[in-house]
What we know:
6hp_glycosidase-like_sf; Bac_rhamnosid6H; 6-hairpin_glycosidase_sf; disordered N terminus; 9-stranded antiparallel β-sheet; 4-stranded antiparallel β-sheet
Amino acid sequence: MKKIIGILTLTIICFICQAQKLPPVFDAKRSAEAQSTETVRKYLSPVRILWKSPNAATNIINAEKLLKQGDGQADLSGNDLCILQSDEKGKPGLLLDFGRELHGGLQLVTDQSRGGKPVRVRIRFGESASEAMSNIDTIKGATNDHAMRDMIMSLPWLGKLEIGNTGFRFVRIDLLDDNSQLKLKEARAIFVYRDIPYLGSFKCSDTLLNKIWLTGAYTVHLNMQDYLWDGIKRDRLVWVGDMHPETSTIAAVFGDNPVVSKSLDLARDITPLPDYMNGMVSYSMWWILIQRDWYMYTGNLKYLQQQKAYLVKLLNQYAVQVDANGSEKLDGAGRFLDWPSSENKPAIHAGLQAMLVMTLNAGAELCKILNDQATSQKCEAAVAKLKTNVPDASGSKQAAALLGLSGLLPAEKANDILSKEGIHNYSTFFGYYMLLTKAKAGDYQGGIDAIRNFWGPMLNLGATTFWEDFNIDWLPNASRIDELVPDGKKDIHGDYGAYCYKGFRHSLSHGWASGPTPWLTEYVLGVKIIAPGCKVIKIEPHLGDLSFAEGTYPTPYGIVKIKHVKQADGKVKTTINAPAEVKVVQ
């Protein structure tokens, strides 16, 4: 009956539109072409006012009214208004703190203005307080790249306006014109995100590790927009290599999500062979590695079969790029691991040698599943040649990690390189592979300590998401990102960075930095996928100096609940509750 009523209603609407020569409300063809959003919007009031202009005592009235929960509706009551007014003493401005990194924009609700005229304001978004206070110039790298974060706009008389689509925590509002007044009822953040549950969880006896796990999860969650981005302020693109830590995090936290396959398919469809994804020889390799890992997680054979034609051609393209000496000869200008290693060409060669081994091994596995024995054998033969040549890591922890993971270098020897000078020369992207290599070498405590010592300081500096890059050499005398930089301190955001992320261009919410989240799930909670689709998982915890660890892991068949408690004799007591379809081995 509801369906019949719906059809009748639609018919009546279309009839009225035709009678009045108006475009129809619904057109099946146009609707099929339209893009639907996969995100929702939530409105959040600021939690504090971090700064007011020096003339605030006379030029800003009732600023704290903006902290009250709003309803998004202008009205005629004239109550609870923040009033900004410019005069001969100056023009007012204030800095709002929304308490955590968000993706979205700003909603401003206004009251009546003088003469009913629009009021001009300048809006600046910032991932740090200092970024929101900055100007777009050549001094500290503030930009409008990828997302507009510094703009001038006019606000309506007794109305509402929404602006912005970026990553931010702070917003500065400045009144621009002389002898002007703005009566502001609300200034709320528009939080745009996927409304999905955190199915996976992690909790242990170290509250810092718990916060790090959740921060990695939240960082990736923010980047799960219509596609899977790497950064929500800058690099709002599908970077395939950067996706690998993100898809590992998604599996551990959110389970199967369509943003993964949608983004992988986009990268495939815009990259005709023999081109490489994102213009880098390694990024098409990451695409193959993600395909293998995602198939192991989801068990979705139908999706994997859809990749076969492209996958096989790509593998054949890689398999022939080994010279007579067993050395990779990957062509293309984009020979890249990550930015901190980008000037060490011998290390890049060693890393690509290892990545090619990892890629062709993964390709051989996938081709066997896809019943392409010829390509599988070609991959295996190329791997055999590559294993006859083991390049030196050239002092690079990035290269050492890949050499250890590929098996070209014993994991213990790779870990020796990783352990030199502790977490110096770690990077937020390849830090994940350094952790994986430590686990492969059996150095689980070393991995736990590295997470505490490298990712932990970002939280101590006020971060609510993990950054595009971080260097512990930045720490001495560094200011927090959630405060205005005190005299004599360094601006951790504006004063540091390199390559494409200098100063305020540096993204403070980058999904590739989420590696500790899947690592803690896999090696401390101990969840290892043995059979595609999580039909068989192995639970093998490594608590190190922790007294307990517990959590959940989302499988295609439901949630696995796990708890490990260290007993007085040092042995670990484990309790597991899994769906009937999931076989658990210990």
